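Annex B. Sample input.
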Amino acid sequence: MRCFVAIPVPDHLRDALVSVQAHLPLGRPVARENLHLTLAFLDEQPEDRLEELHAELDRVRAAAFTLSLSGLGCFGGDKPRLIFADVSPSPALEDVHRKILGAARRAGIALARRRFHPHVTLARIRPGSAGADRIAAAISGLGDRPLPSMPVSSMSLFRSDLRPDGPIYDELAHYDLI
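Annex B, continued. Sample output.
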């Protein structure tokens, strides 16, 4: 089962991000209900491993906190592949991220080593699409738009089913922060 651990985006922020998506010149917007901040991508995992992870995540203790979004960005440089809302640095978020990685290790899940760049993906761009300049201009123009803060009081384990018209995410488990 293809899974990830993420912080769901609250409705008031989803509304603001959907408004930003409407002004993007390229890309396939992420569906409103799929907007999230990934803490760890788990890739394909067997169910027994996910059950072990669930037990480990249930033991994670962290305080609730608030995140701020700090503008827009793009991964891929001259060949952009996705547009995102960037998250301001947050020691509390880094702490939760480290705890998730530890829970995954204890459950026997080996995660790819990647630098953690917290963000909310807004749109995916097909390979070979022209328009890096248009994207850069849109990001520059929309980047100053204020976005509401994001209270974080929980995280979830999601299953991801890839479909031709976009992924379907199902919440498998929910974990409250204290």
